[in-house]
Write a structure and sequence with these properties.
Blueprint lengths: L1 E5 L4 H12 L3 E6 L15 E5 L17 E4 L10 H16 L6 E7 L8 H13 L5 E7 L2 E2 L4 H12 L2 E5 L5 E2 L2 E2 H11 L8 E5 L5 E2 H11 L5 E5 L4 H11 L4 H11 L9 H6 L6 H13 L32 E8 L3 H8 L12 H13 L20 E2 L2 E7 L4 E6 L5 E10 L2 E10 L1 H27 L2
Parallel strand pairs: 1-2, 1-4, 2-3, 4-5, 5-6, 6-11, 7-10, 8-13
Antiparallel strand pairs: 9-12, 14-19, 15-16, 16-17, 17-18, 18-19
Helix pairs in contact: 1-5, 2-3, 4-6, 6-10, 7-8
């Protein structure tokens, strides 16, 4: 069967794509930016890639007429203050475009919405569901709560809280009940539902066997990690204070933290588990889902991460808008150094950031990350998805990867930290030398003042970084 997969560069989409191909389907991947789509060479003959923006009706004309099914995995929870109306418009545009094809079945991954007083985020998901079910096709909505898996937003936020804070003074919403589900089970439900007549024109709640409070989830996580943690809840934390608490302690952005806090006050517990019998799926327990997640992390097999989504930073433009590094009106710090071994030099470049650090003045990088977080930026806490590989579109501390070609020996990064301007950092192997270039395009007087204020540190940081990466 030919299946259209929206959100194919997202956390869920990347994982579902591999399963659909294993099942023998031909997959049409819809992406907003083809530069961010990275897949193994062996899969390229089994997929078709379309650059589509759901807000631009004209681009939706690229969708093939002969598709049999489609997955709608698009969410924009934190990318805009106006995300509710944008999500509705995306759903309407998608439905109208799909109605003009041969599609038989559409599946939407939504959120559990069993309360009458929903958060704006959950209300938006329900609204999208209502728009999509108006189509001329069979429609299925799978509603999930907290998703647990290596790289998932929920897992990484819980991990940050538990591993960084031995004692937590927490908001009262930590006593809210939820029903977490492992990412493996989410992918199973999604892949087994397509073209299954038992699921047509219905919505189902999907969840694991455990109903837990967020407090219990934190304590279970601590137990799994062999950590002793004390948690006290207080009734005095306002939603804004709660959002700041999540924002400063974890790797989430403030917009995402704010959306999560509003949703965490709403119980997300399944109405029933009838879909388990329909599809013959037995979801794993919360503890088992944690074990699976850490097994993937230990073996460095994290397939996707929420941090690589643009929502983790607020960047909404395409990579191609930044990949041409400007020169006019820019400040540049360009240095070059001969290296002893090309492969080792490239390996050091490809290991940069995260736990490896930045090869020089790491305490200054950490200070810059802390200040960035203080002023509403992403800070250094996003780290990197995989310790061995880097792909265009990946988050790398407070940078975004624009271009990564290991054979060519070139890595180009764009700064997502708070700056009075725009900044690029490039590493390039050229004529037996490592060329390292920092480019800054200032915004007004403040931008120029910023450049000259940090200029004294460049000699120390950039010189040491270049020398250490070159192996000198």
């Amino acid at each position: 069967m030919k299946i259209l997969l929206t959100g194919s560069t997202g956390y869920i989409g990347k994982r579902l794509l591999n399963v659909l191909i294993e099942q023998g389907h031909q997959v049409v991947c819809c992406v907003r930016d083809t530069e961010r789509f990275n897949q193994r060479e062996a899969l390229l003959d089994k997929i078709e890639i379309l650059e589509v923006d759901l807000l631009e009706k004209e681009s939706l004309k690229l969708i093939p007429k002969d598709i049999d099914g489609a997955y709608y995995l698009v969410h924009s929870m934190s990318s805009s203050s106006d995300y509710k109306s944008l999500e509705e418009q995306c759903a309407v545009n998608f439905r109208e475009a799909i109605d003009g094809t041969n599609v038989k079945h559409v599946i939407y991954l939504s959120g559990i919405v069993n309360e009458t007083d929903l958060s704006e985020h959950l209300s938006s998901r329900l609204n999208v569901e209502k728009e999509l079910e108006k189509g001329k096709y069979y429609f299925t909505a799978l509603r999930a709560g907290i998703i647990i898996g290596s790289g998932s937003a929920s897992f990484e936020i819980i991990r940050d809280l538990v591993e960084k804070l031995p004692v937590m003074i927490t908001p009262k919403w930590l006593m809210t009940k939820c029903q977490p589900i492992g990412i493996r089970d989410v992918i199973s439900f999604l892949s087994l539902s397509i073209f299954n007549s038992k699921t047509y024109d219905q919505n189902f709640d999907i969840g694991g066997p455990d109903v837990l409070t967020y407090r219990e989830m934190l304590l279970e996580f601590a137990k799994e990690r062999g950590l002793k943690r004390k948690i006290w809840t207080v009734p005095v934390m306002t939603p804004r204070l709660s959002s700041y608490w999540l924002y400063f302690v974890t790797s989430t952005s403030y917009k995402l933290a704010s959306s999560l806090v509003s949703s965490m006050k709403v119980e997300v517990v399944c109405r029933d588990t009838r879909i388990n019998e329909l599809l013959e799926v037995t979801p794993s327990s919360y503890q088992k889902s944690l074990e699976y997640a850490f097994a993937k992390i230990k073996t460095n097999e994290v397939l996707s991460s929420w941090k690589d989504a643009y929502a983790s930073s607020g960047l909404t433009d395409s990579i191609s808008d930044y990949i041409e590094v400007p020169t006019f009106g820019c400040f540049r710090d360009e240095r070059e150094q001969e290296f002893d071994n090309r492969e080792q030099c490239i390996q050091r470049i490809w290991s940069i950031g995260g736990k490896t650090g930045w090869y020089s003045g790491n305490w200054l990088w950490k200070l810059r990350g802390y200040l960035d977080k203080l002023f509403g930026g992403v800070g250094l806490r996003r780290g990197r998805t995989n310790i061995d590989s880097i792909h265009a579109g990946d988050a790398l501390d407070f940078w975004r990867v624009l271009y990564a070609n290991k054979e060519e020996g070139r890595l180009l990064l764009f700064a997502e930290m708070k700056l009075p301007g725009e900044a690029w950092l490039e590493f390039k192997i050229e004529n037996g030398k490592l060329v390292q270039t920092a480019t800054f395009r200032p915004l007004g007087v403040m931008g120029r003042a910023y450049w000259y204020s940090v200029l004294p540190f460049h000699g120390f940081i950039f010189k040491g970084m270049l020398r250490n990466i070159a192996g000198k």
